[in-house]
Write a structure and sequence with these properties.
The complex is a heterodimer of chains A (132) and B (558).
Chain A (H helix, E strand, L loop, with lengths): L3 E6 L3 H13 L2 E6 L2 H10 L4 E5 L7 H11 L4 E6 L4 H9 L4 E4 L4 H24 L1
Helix pairs in contact in A: 2-3
Chain B lengths: L2 H74 L2 H4 L2 H14 L3 E7 L5 E5 L13 H9 L1 E3 L3 E2 L5 E11 L2 E10 L1 H8 L8 E5 L31 E7 L2 E9 L6 E6 L1 H4 L1 H89 L7 H32 L6 E3 L1 H11 L1 H6 L2 E6 L7 E3 L1 H19 L3 E10 L2 E8 L6 H4 L19 H11 L3 E7 L3 E9 L13
Parallel strand pairs in B: 12-14
Antiparallel strand pairs in B: 1-2, 1-6, 3-5, 4-5, 5-6, 7-10, 8-9, 9-10, 11-13, 14-15, 15-17, 16-17
The chains are: A alpha/beta (132), B alpha+beta (558).
Chain lengths: 132, 558
Amino acid sequence: MNQIRVLVVDDEPDFLKLIQRRLTKRNVHVDTVTNGEAALAFLKDNPVDVIILDVRMPGLSGIDTLKEIRKRFRDTEVIMLTGHGSLQSGIEGISLGAYDYILKPFSIDNLLGRIRAAHEHAKLRIERRSNQ
Amino acid sequence: MISTSYSRLKWYLVLITLGLSVVPLFALGYVIHNEFRKTYEEKLTDNLRLMVSNRRNAISMFLNERVVQLQMLADIHSFAEMSNQAYLNKVFDAIHDTSSSFFDIGVIGQNGSHEAYCGPFDLMEVNYRDEPWFHQVMLKGLYISDVFMGFRNFPYFIIAVKRQEGGRTWILRATIDSEVFTSLVRNVRTGQMGDAYIINNKNVLQTPSRFGGRALTKVDLPIGDPGENVEIQSWRRDGVPVIAGFTRLPNTSWRLVIMENPEEELSPLLRTRSLIYALFGSCALMIFVGAYLTVSSVVSRLKASDRERAAMDAAVMQSSKMASLGKLAAGVAHEVNNPLSIIRESAGWIRDIINDGELGDGPAVDELQEAISDIDRHVERARTVTHRMLGFARRMEPLQEDVDLNMLANQTASFLENETRHRNILVETDLDPELPLITTDANQLQQVILNLLENAIDAIDQDGQITVVTRVDGDTVALDIADSGAGISRENMNKVFDPFFTTKPTGEGTGLGLSIVYSTLSKLGGTIRVNSDPGQGTTFTIRLPFTGPQFPGGKEEQ
């Protein structure tokens, strides 16, 4: 079975390191970048199934990055990650086309579940589109 | 403001109103009363003047009649005829028949002795040569005496006229009963205090006075010689006001005096005055009551608006305080959440390693496992705190915007589509297309709906149905969210909105969801009601007014 390819975008290197290790252990292919611009650059060269995107980052914000991704990489699902605790940014993200959102701190299994669901969703969509 | 300053303001306003209305009222009343009094007094004086003048005419007519009668007798008869005692008797009888006031009649020669006399007295031997009146009648041709008491204690007076006949002069003298005068004068006495009499030039009564005594007593009057005119004078006698009209009777030294008590005569005026006092008193009372009631209502309204404004100021202050507190809390929570997730991920990584068996087995590994559980538990605890802080931060001043509840419900339900699909939950909506827009805070309301929908999903867990209904209910819009879950047990019904009450396993629910829903709704002016039958599912009904409260209090509920 193909590994799910995940890109995690967050400005905390420690967080990235840990999430990468844990998801890798759960048979997920993880790449990490520390800001929105790097994420967009990465996506240009490497196809990714699901992006975990922090809302609050220096430089290009999570929401702006999401808008760009939705414009340019339509097959990629996005899960918003927010430390803000408010549903507001999550809801805003969803209305801009994110698949889901998750509040920090979260349990890894919860995140994994959502990644799988997002991947399924992406697959279904691609299949539907190719069927048409 | 303190209540005493309100009551001071109230009395101040009442007194000003009272002053401004009562003072002109009384001034008006005073002027009217004075004018009325002046007119009335003038009328009274005129009446008195008229009465005096009428009475004078009547009396002088009577006197003149007597004088003319006597003069005629003297003129049409010769001395020879009149000095004949028998003839005089006949003449006197004839006069006495027509005018009973003649008492006697005598013919006096120029030497002062009686030539003939007819009457009840024996006067034939009396000689008048040295009497002052004899000289006066000889000089002027006519004499009218003062009243004197006759032999039988009847008051009389004398009229004497002179007749020149050839070379001789003789006098016709008659005594007149002055009772006629008395009755002429007496019948003009008015009221209880009125008086009328005649006095001579020495203030001796010629007719009896009602209060001053019998005829021929002297009265004390502060009046002078009025001449031919009628004079009016007023003074006080023994504290009683007196108004008197008097005039000289022609051909005599007599004066006619008519006295009245003006208080008695003015009694209609006095009655009017007391009526006016009563009227003004009741007017003043009415003005006072009116002013008091009006001012009371104005002041109480002022008080209420002051209180309202104070409450509003307090609310504004409270909400701005809450807003800054909220910003602080949000900042802190956000900054804490990032390290918290790193801690959690680190602990998770250690657990991953242990679970993979990389460290083998042994008591040290077990202790490590336990430590990681502790870390997890306390991270969860800290997370609850930060999320609560963020929840608190969000509870700020609500916005006022037009919200389509149907659209909001649809949108919110669509956020949870993934969740419901995975759990095989069917979301049915029955939205009233005629639902009016309501004025409220869309974001806060959306959070309420989201919380309720998440609750419903949690209550069902797997395989079930959620029904979302919107409708107009009276002057509110209502939203029902019904789930086909297990329902809420009776003993938990009263606690569902309590903070930290949860039926979920420890660590999964904070017990804050419904409590936040509850406080958010009360801030938006709405209500929430729960209806549940164990085993049959639960329905939450929220109701919102068409227009939210304009000045929601900054009160925070835990």
